[in-house]
Design brief:
The chain has 66 residues and is mainly alpha-helical. 95% of the residues lie in helices and 0% in strands. It is built from two helices and no strands. It has helices at residues 2-28, 30-65. Helix 1 packs antiparallel against helix 2 (30-65). The longest helix has 36 residues, at 30-65. The protein is elongated and about 50 Å long. The protein starts with a helix and ends with a helix. 6% of the residues are buried.
């Protein structure tokens, strides 16, 4: 379970960082906003998926290995 004590906060931080970058890109606008806001939100979805997988793996490991 030691691995998950580091992976879970790291995954949540990555999701938060990508979300903040996407919001920044959206509000900045212009060429930068057009090219990066949609990409950042796609990255956020992938990061959230990975975070959910890590949480499920942690719950599974705790259930099977105590």
């Amino acid at each position: 379970m030691d691995v998950f004590e580091y992976l879970i906060p790291a995954a949540l931080f990555v999701v938060f960082a990508v979300l903040c970058f996407g919001i920044y890109a959206m509000f900045r606008g212009g060429d930068f906003g057009r090219s990066w806001s949609n990409k950042a939100m796609r990255m956020r979805v992938v990061a959230q998926f990975v975070a959910v997988l890590i949480l499920v793996a942690a719950m599974w490991a705790k259930q099977h290995y105590g």
